[in-house]
Every structure is written in C-alpha cells, then in structure tokens.
# Entry
Amino acid sequence: MRKPDLVNVIADEADISKDKASLALNAILEAITSAMKSAAGVKQ
# Structure
C-alpha cells in the first residue's frame, strides 16, 4: 500500500477531506520517524 492509498483510507474511514487526511498521515509518520530516531523508540 502506498501513501496515497493510506490517505484515501483515512479520508473515507474518518469522513474527512483527502487534504486533511494527508496532513494527519504526515503528522503520524513524522512522529513515528522522530521516535525511531530517538532513544524512546516506538512501543505498542
């Protein structure tokens, strides 16, 4: 699944625009990337 596919799923499931879904996905990916680079890591 590519990023545009994820944006479409988020937009459909959350009933929001694709622009807002894209912003949300970018924020999530940035948070995960930052956590992976730090000592905190990503935990469930």
